[in-house]
């Protein structure tokens, strides 16, 4: 069968010459055609139609500064921000230009303050960044919130470099509005293969064995090495240039929310945050200024009605990389699941 020539959402811009994109027959990348854009744009919420009671489980098409003032106070349980990094980047019809560190810090502060009013007193905030923008992001968060930690996650394939060290990691700052916040560590345990199993008096210590091998359930650290970047053979893959993996977002949502709580992404991009929130029985709201990406988000949200799996997460546990063949819907002894297979979070009290 010959490769099929199709046009991606990013290629269907009206202000630039469209280019045909050739995809292999086994390429599972999700995209939207021009016809699908016309279909899915009817599902989008416009800025003028946004009100205080109609925005949940919606994708809002518009610029953040226009949408923010329409949103009510204190309804968000988890704010996940994946802003444009301080790099020259093309996001479809919108380009972001690199700024000085101070100017980028002011820009991010303006973005954050425009939506700070939406946060509950118990809300958690996660902000993605790279090594260049990390200090600017920290500066702003530390001014208005309590910064709890910095997560560093390893990209499976680093970006190449000939005159510098290969850049293969990114940061995520974790902060909270107050000392009362949700953090459910039991929901984000990782199952790893044990290389050198230890026994005490002939009894396995901290690990179990089955027909697939010896495994240990471990609590996650702030160094994440189990994340796989979406690629062409994965249905979660899109043409968005800075798409985050569903597994990464799932860890954050499971750790910092209960079911039916609200997850807000003000830079929605290809829709990953809303998609994962839906798969995990959370409410969601996403804001995106690129129409094609909004429509791509809606397509993925609809697909999540039937495709509820998250790569690297099964049986209520996260698995290390390259373990797809041994992932099963395991029942882990001694752990209490809710009826929807989500562990009940703990709410940390005020100190």
TrEMBL record:
Q: Name one Pfam family in it.
A: N6_N4_Mtase
The reply to whether Methyltransferase figures as a keyword in the UniProt entry is yes
Q: Which terms in the GO cellular component ontology are assigned?
A: cytoplasm
The Gene Ontology biological process terms listed for this entry are: methylation
E.C. designation(s): 2.1.1.-
* MF GO annotations: DNA binding; N-methyltransferase activity
Q: Which UniProt keywords apply?
A: Methyltransferase, Transferase
Tell me yes or no: is Zinc among this UniProt entry's keywords: no
Q: Which residues form the DNA methylase N-4/N-6 domain?
A: 76-298
**Family label:** Belongs to the N(4)/N(6)-methyltransferase family.
Q: What is this protein called?
A: Methyltransferase
Identify the species of origin: Candidatus Nomurabacteria bacterium GW2011_GWB1_35_20
Q: What is the lineage of its organism?
A: Bacteria, Candidatus Nomuraibacteriota
